[in-house]
Structures are given as C-alpha cells and as structure tokens.
Amino acid sequence: MRRGLTMSLFALLIFTLLALAAGPVLASTEATTEGAKASGLIWWAWPVILFGITFVMGIFAVLAGVGGGVLFTPIIGGFFPFNMDFVRAAGLLVALSGALAAGPGLLKKGMADLRLAIPIALIASSGAIVGAMIGLALPDNIVQISLGVAILGIVAIMLKAKKSEFPDVPKADNLSTALRISGIYHETSTGQDINWKIHRTPQGLFTFIFIGVMAGMFGLGAGWANVPVLNLMMGAPLKVSVATSKFLLSITDTSAAWIYINQGALIPMIVVPSVIGIMLGSFIGVKLLAKTKPAMIKNIVIILLGFSGIRAILKGFGI
Fold this sequence. Notes:
This protein is mostly helical. It is 74% helix and 4% strand. It has one domain.
C-alpha cells in the first residue's frame, strides 16, 4: 500500500512538472482550439480537469473490462473543446500505456500467446496505419459523426456479446495448424492445464483488417473488438483472448500513434495528465474489482458510451 502511494505521488509530481512545462508551449501554438480559448479558463485548469476525469475513467475501465481508449476518445472528444486529431492521438497513447504495462506480465504468465498475436498484429497494424491516415485526412465533423456511429455500434456489441470461458473447437483449421497456433495455459481457478486451439482463422484475420482501420481512425484502441473475435469467432479461451488482446494493443496502437505523432498531433498538455490519470485510476480499479459487481459497472459504461456516441453525432452536425 505504501509503495502504491509513493508511486502515485511520484506520478503526480511528474504530471505537475510536465504540465507546467507544456503550458507555455501550448499557449503559443495552435494546439489550443478556439473553443478552449473561448472558455476563459486558465491554461493549467485543462490538465487538472483531464487528470480528474481520466482517473475516474481508469477505475471504470478496469471494472467494466474495457480499454481506456474506448472511453477516452468519445467522452473527451464529445465534451471537451479540443481538436479531434489531438484527442485521437491521446486516446491511442492512453490505450498503449495500459497495454505496455500489462503485456510483459501476461506473456510471462503464459496467458498471452505470441503465435496467436503475431499474424493478427501484422494485419491489424497495417490496418491501423491506414485508418490513422484516413482519420487525419477527413474533416473534423465527418470524424465526429463516424465516431458516434462506431461508439453506438460498440454499445450494441457490448449489450449482445456473450463470452465463453472455454469455446468448443472440435478441430483446428488448416491455417492455424500450419502456423502452429495452439497452446497450454494453467487455469489457476481449477488448477488444471488447458489445451486450446482455434478455428475460422482466415475469417478472423480478415476481420482484423477492419478492426485495425477503426482503431487507427478513431483512436479507440481495439480491445473492445479483439476479445469477441478471438473468443467467439476463432475459439480461443476467454482468458487467452483477453490477455492476447491486451498484448496486441502494444503493437497495433503504436503503429497508429506514430502517424499522429508524425503529423504533430501529440499535445503534452492533453496526453500527460490523461495517461497518468488512466494508469492511477486503473490501479484503484484493480483494488475494487473483487468487491464490485461487474454487471452494474458494465451497464454504467454502456450508458456513458451511448450518451457520448449521441453527443459525438450531434457535435458532428454542429448541434
């Protein structure tokens, strides 16, 4: 507990120093949007507000089992006066930071599978690069409307999605056999070693093209889509799907993030408090996970995303 408190205070100190350094730079560039300038708030109010909101997002993201990016982009893009290019770049880095923190541990525990992740990462990363280029080329209002539609689609998936702990895969298909995508992981709840394999590999890999494009275009990350495809379509066990999805974000989001960074869409005043807020909130969320009913939190997240999706569409139409 003391160690966690020390880390939190250290992170807050870094956040304060970086925000102070970023503020004057931000004030002298076009990074601040007309809406932010017209708000009348002093420059340091924005990172403080962002930190508070993303801290709460980090808690809810863990409890609801969704990535930070899928909450960050629609909520910040819909209710903050920032240009969407900056919001999407920050959203990718928010998702990326969580993935980088969790990825090594998941690989070490044998939960995330490299043979499963590598072909998907190659395909999804290429799609994410294309999606980022498309997103930067489109007008802001078109991106807002498309984001709103995508978010409402995610809400529909979350409402209808069913999870299978151990899907029934009678036989591995030829492609997964050729790529030797299979494995064994230790299920701590039962103390058993689970042998798993996948099927429908061509269909799954094709689907990841579109998932990558959406992740790069909207800055959402792709955890919301990775898990259903890996688990329900391809037949990977749920824990392997979740762990591999988390590891995948460290590759696919990096590809898309570089496109935004190369175009100058990385604003420290937005990214720094957001990443720190999400990470500290996730730390609290992990502590609360055992005591909270996931179904209730999931319903709250669905309501928030639904409201944010509608808000993004209205904002895109100038309402």
